[in-house]
Write a structure and sequence with these properties.
Length: 209
């Protein structure tokens, strides 16, 4: 059994996949834009407030920017993000007839949409095989020793080479939950880690003791 297969299966034993919870592509797109440089709980709060008042591309596109700012304030950098989600919503409404594209290249053409955001839309909005790489995925992949990369874009490319495609879809969700609860940036909980024996970082720490 491959190392990747064991890691994914062990994480699936303790984490429920959230991929299918809210798979509306437009909501996924806007939520992921709001998630940039903030914590998940702030993203959740800001998204809930925004969608409770404006839930469609045209509604957000034509909403007063000041009102959008108030609704998404908890996400941080709300002046920039308000204008960004309005512009993206306008493009989705006017250029795509309210249908979010399911093509990576087209998603990347939207203002403020990078590879992580685009891949999140593909995975969580369309359930397509892709690997969104955020801080958790980048950190954990390197810490475990699956890849040896310097930035998220390099990590995505490297993971696509070593991770079988059948595991691309759940990888982000599993690693995010794992990174939030056990494999934390500071003070990882080695004592309860289900994949410690497969982790290069853990083996290194053990050798130093």
């Amino acid at each position: 059994m491959s190392r990747i297969k064991i890691i994914v299966e062990k994480l699936e034993e303790i984490y429920a996949l959230r991929i299918f919870e809210d798979s509306d592509p437009f909501r996924v797109l806007i939520r992921t834009i709001l998630s940039q440089r903030t914590r998940d709980e702030n993203t959740d709060a800001a998204s809930a407030l925004l969608f409770s008042k404006f839930s469609t591309p045209d509604a957000i596109a034509y909403a007063p920017v000041e009102e959008v700012e108030v609704l998404i304030k908890k996400s941080g950098f709300y002046h920039v993000k308000a204008r960004r989600v309005k512009e993206v919503s306008r493009i989705i409404h006017e250029d795509y007839n309210d249908v979010v594209p399911d093509d990576l290249k087209e998603l990347l053409s939207l203002p403020g949409v990078g590879r992580k955001t685009a891949n999140c839309v593909l995975v969580y909005g369309f359930h397509k095989d892709a690997i969104p790489v955020d801080v958790h995925v980048h950190r954990i992949s390197n810490r475990i020793g699956i890849v040896n990369t310097k930035n998220p874009d390099e990590t995505e490319i490297a993971l696509m080479k070593v991770v079988p495609k059948m595991y691309w879809l759940p990888l982000n969700d599993l690693f995010v939950q794992f990174g939030q609860t056990i494999c934390r940036p500071i003070g990882p909980k080695h004592e309860i880690c289900p994949i410690a024996e497969l982790c290069d970082y853990y083996k290194e720490m053990e050798n130093q003791m």
